[in-house]
Amino acid sequence: MAGKESGLGWSVASRDDSAGSLRAIVNDVTNVDLSITRNTQDTTGMDKSAAERLLLLGDYSSAWTMVYNDAAGASSYQVHKTVSTSNVVRSEDLRVSGQILLNEVVLTDMVMSRAADGSLIITAPAVLQSGTDPTWTT
Description:
- This protein is mostly beta strands.
- It has one domain (10-41, 53-137): Elongation Factor Tu (Ef-tu), domain 3, CATH 2.40.30.
- 4% of the residues lie in helices and 51% in strands.
- It has one helix spanning 76-80, and strands at residues 10-16, 22-24, 29-42, 53-67, 90-96, 99-107, 111-114, 120-128, 136-137.
- Strands 1, 2, 3, 4, 5, 6, 7, 8 and 9 form a 9-stranded antiparallel beta sheet that branches.
- β1 (10-16) and β2 form a beta hairpin.
- It is globular and about 60 Å long.
């Protein structure tokens, strides 16, 4: 059992390009935000003094922040440049410390941002598409 660890050492951060080829872009990714959630239904009766809830559907979303890289093949720009013109499901593969998270997602945006210091980054959020509960595996 590994125990407590830092966020260093992500070994895989890959997404499909619009042609369905899984591209390893971990070298371009600088930040990943993940949200694995469950919806709830409030079932509190008027006779209660605290909330009652039922668990409902699971969900997943992610947002990757990446350095702008337009090299041919596996680069942040090449993978995400077709977000506005392709309606394809994409695989997303994240791995850290032997833990694996694989999901089928749809990309909702590709935001390019140029900061005052001259840096150019891409942010690309995704949401669950497959109807399968997101689950970490080893």
